[in-house]
Queue: 4 jobs
Job 1
Amino acid sequence: MNRAAGWLSVFTAICLAAAGALVTTPLFTLGPEMLGPLPTADLLSKLLFAGAVVFGLSGLHLLVLQFLLRTATKRRAHDLRNILRLVFGAVGVVALLGVLTDQWLGVLLSLGVVGFAITFALQQPLLSLLGWLYIMAKRPYSVGERVRIGETKGDVIKVDFLVTTIWEVGGELISTNQPSGRVVTVPNSVVLSSEVTNFGGGGSEYVWNEISMQVSYETDLDAATEIMIEEAEAVVGAEMADSIADFRERLAETPVELEVTDGPTVNVTQAESWVELRLRYIAHPRQGTRVKNELYERVLERFNENATVTSFPVSRNR
């Protein structure tokens, strides 16, 4: 459908351009020679050429977009639409002004002067536009990824020229990593002056998570550790193996050297009245709360089934 509309627009532009060239010839006469201060033929020719510019650029935009989107992902398609809108919009403004005024050099100079004045009058929007260019070039995040920009955390819905739209996660309404239902608009200029956390950064979509269990000093730590690792492998084991392999490949492309374990691990921390066991594993950011809840339930059930080797602190001041 878009391709047919694109070719139709291009054909219409060719017809309008041909008509615009025809009305300026001596063979063409239509009504009075003057229409106000302008010759009728010149005015009609400018309008026809302006229509040709509009239809021609619209058709080319549709055709180029259709061609580029054939193999593009959803995230890539979103960026391509924005870039093509900016390019064709800028070309369209210059072309229309040039056709209507017949002063192509003057139009370019005027746009330069106007742009210089706008730089001082609209600093924040221009900073946001520069932020958008930075986002397109450096890719700190893209559509569909979970990020934290300043104090806002959530999933990126849209990246426009001036703002980034985020489906909020957490926030002041809820305490878990679940969508709050609110949509937050963040100026792109914030990216240039604030830290950006990408939860899918480093080339991997998974992040490290932890759950902690507090047990008494009488607990068999080896047995408790084994239980926690078994339950973690049952919940995220297969998924974690694939993500670790991908993480190592990405890590090998950087100068950073890290020790990455193949499966879940447990770190032991001593406190005043109990021992804290911290289970470390990998999970997708959007599944973090679900996985954490499931692991808590499974580990607690196993601990209660093995009360002779695992016990909880007697004190409630935890």
Job 2
Amino acid sequence: MPETSAKRVLLAAPRGYCAGVDRAVIAVEKALELHGAPIYVRKEIVHNKYVVETLSERGAIFVNETDEVPEGARVVFSAHGVSPAVRDSAEQRNLLTIDATCPLVTKVHKEAVRFARDEQTILLIGHDGHEEVEGTAGEAPEHTIVVNSPEEADLVEVPDPDNVVWLSQTTLSVDETMETVRRLRTRFPNLQDPPSDDICYATQNRQVAVKKLSPECELVIIVGSANSSNSVRLVEVALQAGADASYRIDRASEMDESWLEGVTTVGVSSGASVPEILVRDLLERLAGLGYADVDEVKTATEDLMFSLPREIRADLKAADQAMKA
């Protein structure tokens, strides 16, 4: 670690909301504005406690499955995507659906459908039980095998070793995913790559920024929820990149002041589903403890934006026309 006596914060950039999260949260907000409460949301719209609590206060009702939604009601599918079985269930209950699936997740779904149509075995690198993995695997369950780790890559068995392709959850550690792919290719030399990288640009950019600042930090604090895969990965990335310690917190109040003992440089970043207000709260608390000097470590500029779900766009257009009538 470089020697310095002044307490400081290295603030990662990019951090926080990605385009897919922003789109999904706005979709729920617009649905509430246009149609009033309640608006049902299947699963957490994004993996962040603060966001879910804030939307709940405004009238969003979060459910685990569509059968918890009253027939004919309006339901939003989360940014993580859903399987065809979930869409069928919603249709059977005559639900008015708003699909807030991140377009980058939709891309992976389409890849799964295409590879399954070609009778290929899909090795889906990701975490069993994560909503995104459930949705992607649900596109072609009979053709998909989930690989949870590099270690599982050494054990997985496939029907035809020469007809295998890999896909991945969009929020994984880039390094760990590539290690899993390396091990899979050792066992299956003809393993086919997806047509483009599945790990999303925001996940990669946040990991790169944390990698850059971590060697200079005794401590790296990541703001994000426990069920946020990309937030959890950032803690791992910080430790692997050279930080002495790294912790994940939901809010500034969760920071343990004992973490700061002997620390001159604190790195700060946040997962892709974290609103900036939570980072600002942490910086304010750190400033009160003597870490008022904040330097931003910028490794990329993000300007990608996604259009709102088509259902919301249609409703906004209808509302606009009604006002003009």
Job 3
Amino acid sequence: MQASEVPRAVDAAMSIASSLELAVEDAIVLQDSNKLTLRLLPCDVLARVAPVANQVAQLEIELAQRLTEAGSPVAVLEPRVQPCVYERDGFVVTLWTYYEPATLPEISAADYAHALHRLHTGMRKLDVPTPHFTDRVEQAQQLVASRDRTPELADADRMLLGHTLRDLRQMISEHGCAEQLLHGEPHPGNVLSTNNGPLFIDLETCCRGPVEFDLAHAPDEVSEHYPGVNQDLLRQCRILVLAMITTWRWDRGDQLPNGRQLGMQWLDQIRAAR
């Protein structure tokens, strides 16, 4: 989120929570990316705030409710208020349960894999319209093709990313493996380590595809504990995901610290992998 928007976003979240009779005196910024994540005190509620444009908060709430009912390991909505999307001053706000970090914050690969498998099991029961994973690949392809949006990307690197995204998208699509609803980005940043075990957050990236696409976002050792993995497909998905996240680093609007440095490192990894 743009730095100039943060104070307004915080005010919007605090105002909405107060109007719902939650005690709010302070807001602590926990994460600032495409959404702002706040811990509201003393009510101890987690607020996620995003600009109204291009947000999918309603889908995220629906998925969270249905996955919670299915017993899937996901963060739950705040039970003291209505489970809906609140809007104020150009922002949408959703309110969630705040979880204290676990005493031992490190999640083992086995626990990570077990939680992801449980999540996938719950997701297979849902029939919810979501994008296909190839739609997200196409977004990366469009970014690579736009010199205006990626002005610092060298021609040779642009060609490497473009070919990698195109080739791997086609190869994975032609695999013919079973597809289902996926988290979309179950990387460690979207997994909470709680005293009740790992919980997945940020369901706005959900899409359809093979489970190997999700596994490609997790640490490598997680796949060793996940049953029935197609290793050839997983390798292809890992290269594809690496090309996608590398592409985001060259977006002129990317705000990830050391983003360009990571982009250079990942380009070298893609060359080696290909």
Job 4
Amino acid sequence: MALFRPRRHFNDLTEQEVLALAISSEEDDGRIYRTYAERLRQDYPDTAAVFDGMAEEEDLHRRRLIARHEERFGKVIPLIRREHVAGYYARRPIWLVENLGIDRIRAEAEAMEQDAERFYHAAAKRSTDTETRKLLGDLAAAEAGHRQTAHHLEAENLDEDSLEAEKATAHRQFVLTWVQPGLAGLMDGSVSTLAPIFAAAFATQNTWETFLVGLAASIGAGISMGFTEAASDDGQLSGRGSPFKRGIASGVMTALGGLGHALPYLIPDFWTATITAFVVVFFELWAIAWIQNRYMDTPFFRAAFQVVLGGALVFAAGVLIGSG
């Protein structure tokens, strides 16, 4: 059945099909670069200009390839694309790359050109036909030229001030999307679960039951914080980024904050588990203070005082309630 027909191998393609494949690949890459440019234009206009230039280079190579096809085979170009050829280099979906940040997009663009260059070189070495070898060699040289052009365009459009400005924008976006909700989750998970966990510990003096209380409190708080963060702001007006990313950051860090001092209660001995949990809490609170100082520009000792004082009060409340 045609539905299950395997893809063709590159070695089985005719010279016309190889040229048609190159044309469709250049068209796809040009569209990818233009999409990157549009996605980056608002926050990173200089990098967007780089991708605009790379898209124009792809258009130029596509026009040259079409002209060569018309000279050798006529104006009707066979329909053949990457997905039709087994082993041909693939492009990642744009949605998978564009959400990973500007450095990831730049790296992906360079990898695109490297993949194409390596593929055409390998294909040229396997070819025994002179004209086909020359064609594939020309395409490999064109891909190498794309990379050189990209570096030239970066040097032309991205001066030191532009790079610094884009790094600052990227850092701010990272803080808003990942650090801020993650820190809020870590604080909530570490501090809010202190009372129920230590209250259960001193009330029951049973490490397994205490662990179950801590596990339930941590997972429940993580789910609640994750959904709350994701639903509170879609990021369109605030610029805080994807609500899905922020929800993941907040939910996961909330759960980890609680699990940190719940896991020691897997130790059978009550006092060993409790002392271990207390040590874990100490490091959790100091980690929160360090993150606040590192990413939120909060003076370290002020952050430490706020976090440790709040944690100590919640811890004391849990112990008093459990002991009573």
